[in-house]
């Protein structure tokens, strides 16, 4: 009897997942509703990896709809389950999405915490250690968005302790130069540092958007000071 219940729940969950995939192109709301039903059934029968996979699909649908708050919520759920199943790479991908979207909606401390955590867990992993400087750059850019120069410089010291190779990277140089430009309230210096980095390693849309936010804040400060003099 237990087997029958398990089998039928498994079949029902698969049926909901199939229905969701039919709805995906025409009705996102229905697709999400079906995937949630599937997830709940897979959780009931202990199929955590399937649940994680469908949580991630729900998150992707919310991302398509530009509903970042909900996307964050479901990527977090997916990350937790992938982590519990030791699927570290996919868990990290989901966590990165949480961090990126958190920064987009100006929840910088949350984004910083996640990027730093991924960097910490990756630094001694032969497969993941090459991504560490990218995670630290992302965390550093979020620090710049907060605009606290002391916090930025403290973070840079921490990052160099976390990964001794970081101080020799172009990512570290960029963050140091940008922190100095913010400290000196020098928009031209800020722009030059970004251009120099971008000429060698193209900045992606997410990093560019955040750096533009920092630059606009810096410009506003410069204008304020001009008005006062």
What this model shows, in words?
The chain is mostly helical and 229 residues long. The chain folds into two domains: 1-105, Alpha Horseshoe (Serine Threonine Protein Phosphatase 5, Tetratricopeptide repeat); 106-228, Tetratricopeptide repeat domain (Serine Threonine Protein Phosphatase 5, Tetratricopeptide repeat). It contains eleven helices and no strands. It has helices at residues 2-23, 28-44, 48-64, 68-84, 88-104, 108-122, 132-146, 149-162, 170-183, 187-200, 205-228. The longest helix is centred in the last third of the chain and has 24 residues, at 205-228. It starts with a helix and ends with a helix.
Q: How would a textbook summarize the main sheet?
A: none
> Mean pLDDT, rounded to whole units?
92
Oligomer: single chain
**CATH fold topology of the largest domain:** Serine Threonine Protein Phosphatase 5, Tetratricopeptide repeat
Q: Indicate the percent of residues in helices.
A: over 70%
Give the N-terminus to C-terminus distance in angstroms: 83 Å
Low-confidence stretches: none
The CATH homologous superfamily name of the largest domain equals Tetratricopeptide repeat domain
CATH class of the largest domain: Mainly Alpha
SSE topology string:
HHHHHHHHHHH
Q: Look at the helices and sheets and give the structural class.
A: mainly alpha
CATH architecture name of the largest domain: Alpha Horseshoe
The proportion of residues in beta strands is under 5%
Return Rg in Å: 22 Å
Count of DSSP helices?
A: 11
Shape: elongated
Coiled coil: 51-78
Pfam families: SNAP
Membrane topology: Peripheral membrane protein
TPR repeats: 52-85
């Amino acid at each position: 009897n237990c087997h029958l219940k398990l089998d039928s729940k498994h079949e029902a969950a698969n049926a909901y997942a199939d229905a969701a995939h039919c709805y995906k192109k025409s009705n996102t709301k229905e697709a999400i509703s079906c995937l949630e039903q599937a997830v709940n059934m897979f959780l009931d029968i202990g199929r955590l990896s399937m649940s994680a996979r469908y949580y991630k699909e729900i998150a992707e649908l919310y991302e398509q709809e530009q509903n970042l708050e909900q996307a964050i919520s479901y990527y977090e759920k997916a990350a937790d389950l992938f982590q519990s199943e030791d699927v570290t790479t996919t868990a990290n991908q989901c966590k990165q999405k949480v961090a990126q979207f958190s920064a987009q909606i100006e929840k910088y401390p949350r984004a910083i915490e996640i990027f730093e955590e991924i960097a910490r867990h990756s630094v001694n992993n032969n497969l993941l250690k090459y991504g560490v400087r990218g995670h630290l750059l992302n965390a550093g850019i979020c620090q710049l968005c907060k605009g606290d120069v002391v916090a930025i410089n403290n973070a840079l010291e921490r990052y160099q302790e976390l990964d001794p190779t970081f101080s020799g990277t172009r990512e570290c140089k960029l963050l140091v130069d940008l922190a100095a430009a913010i400290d000196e309230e020098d928009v031209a210096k800020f722009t030059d540092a970004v251009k120099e980095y971008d000429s060698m390693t193209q900045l992606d849309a997410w990093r560019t958007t955040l750096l533009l936010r920092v630059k606009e804040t810096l410009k506003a400060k410069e204008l304020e000071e001009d008005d006062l003099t």
